[in-house]
Amino acid sequence: MTDPDDVLVIMRMARALERVDAGLSPQQYRILKLAGAGGERSARLAERLAVAKPTLTAIADSLVGAGLARRETEPGDRRVVRLRLTEAGSAAVERADAAYRQWLDRLYELTGDRDRIHAGFGLIDGALAELCRARRPASASPAPATAAATSQPATAGRP
């Protein structure tokens, strides 16, 4: 049986991560991490982030306006638009990675059991990926499970 306090711990952790001075909002960070991993199509980014396309468009507009990302059309199919990091976007992600890593390192230090907590995050990441696959219609193509898509900053690659 699930302990209701576990939910509160997860919510508290999410709120604590929102307060980390990373220079980017959690949403901006997640989008930039995924865009930096290979120039995702906008529709695919929205799906992987579990946000509505208009929400993604608004955040992407702000990232493009801030010079952190750029939109590129697919050669041969101008309907396909990919979001890619600029040099400034890459630098912003590196700074945010460092801030999240520092926060998480302190959390690990306070638990006294870094390896077990880190392994637990890996298990949770896998379970979240499975839940996402189970929610997706059978006709949709499977998304590769990545820690970056799950908003967990356990390592530099985890938002």
Tell me about this structure.
- By secondary structure, the protein is mainly alpha-helical.
- It has one domain (4-150): Arc Repressor Mutant, subunit A (Orthogonal Bundle).
- It is built from 6 helices and 2 strands, in the order ααααββαα.
- A hairpin with a 2-residue loop joins strand 1 and strand 2 (77-85).
- The longest helix has 25 residues, at 87-111.
- The radius of gyration is 17 Å and the shape is globular.
- The two termini are 29 Å apart.
- The model is unreliable at 144-159 (pLDDT under 50).
Topology summary:
Layout: H1 4-18, H2 26-36, H3 42-49, H4 53-65, E1 69-74, E2 77-85, H5 87-111, H6 114-135
Antiparallel strand pairs: 1-2
Helix pairs in contact: 2-4, 2-5, 3-4
List keywords for this structure.
single chain, 159 residues, mainly alpha, Arc Repressor Mutant, subunit A, two-stranded antiparallel sheet, 6 helices, 2 strands, 59% helix, globular, disordered C terminus
Strand content: 5-15%
How are strands sequenced across the largest beta sheet? 1-2
Main beta sheet: 2 strands, antiparallel
Average pLDDT reading: 82
**Structural class category:** mainly alpha
Number of helices: 6
CATH topology, what is it called?
A: Arc Repressor Mutant, subunit A
Name of the CATH class: Mainly Alpha
Estimate the helix proportion, in percent: 55-70%
Order of helices and strands: HHHHEEHH
CATH architecture: Orthogonal Bundle
The name of the CATH superfamily reads Winged helix-like DNA-binding domain superfamily/Winged helix DNA-binding domain
Low-confidence stretches: 144-159
Beginning-to-end CA distance, first to last residue: 29 Å
| Rounded radius of gyration (Å) | 17 Å
Whole-number count of domains: 1
* C-alpha geometry: globular
Number of strands: 2
